[in-house]
Amino acid sequence: MKTKPQQIDLRQVRRFLADASKKAIAARKNLTIDEETAYQTAYQAMLKASLALMLSHGQRPRVQLGHHIAVIEFAQEHLDPGLGATFALFDRMRRKRNEAFYDIALIGGEEAEDAVVAAEMYLQLIGANIDARFP
Questions:
Q1: Which of 54, 72, 44 is nearest to 12 (CA)?
Q2: What number of helices (H) and strands (E) belong to the chain?
Q3: I need a surface site. Which of 35, 55, 114, 132 has the fewest CB within 10 A?
């Protein structure tokens, strides 16, 4: 099992969403400074938002190798199936972030911009999903 149950704490969920939002803002600002930082920060924003979604369902990832994949898969299972392209990008961002972190991966301006736009859209979707379930 890749997740474990946890009591739903809406304050915690909202804090994760707020942190994801800050990261998305930071990613947007970093586009003019450092594309790699913008890209990685956009990925972190999406991951934090996905964690908020997971927590809002009373689950959290187990701390183990591959827990980022578990978070992405959980979000994919609980959001609109029509978001396949978004999740393909999310997974590509995860892999590229690992390459950039552990090796050298070149991230261009257009790729970074696409990641930031995807993160901003994704955060809106997650926020709407949580707000619809917890008005």
A1: 54
A2: 5, 2
A3: 132
Q: Is 104 helix (H, G, I), strand (E, B) or coil?
A: coil
Q: In 10 A of CB 41, how many CB atoms?
A: 26
* Residue type, position 16, single letter: F
Contact between 31 and 116 (Cβ < 8 Å)? yes
Alpha-carbon distance of 127 to 35, in angstroms, equals 26
Name the pLDDT band for 99 (thresholds 50, 70, 90). Answer: confident
Average pLDDT over residues 68-97: 90
Q: What is the mean pLDDT of the chain?
A: 92
Rounded to an integer, the average pLDDT of 70-83 is 92
- 122 in Cβ contact with 86 (< 8 Å): yes
Q: How much is the pLDDT for 94?
A: 86
With beta carbons less than 8 A apart as the criterion, state whether 46 and 96 touch.
no
Residue-level pLDDT at 98: 76
Which residues are CB-contacts of 119 (< 8 A; sequence separation ≥ 6)?
A: 23, 24, 27, 42, 43, 45, 46
How crowded is residue 15: how many other Cβ atoms within 10 Å of its Cβ?
A: 14
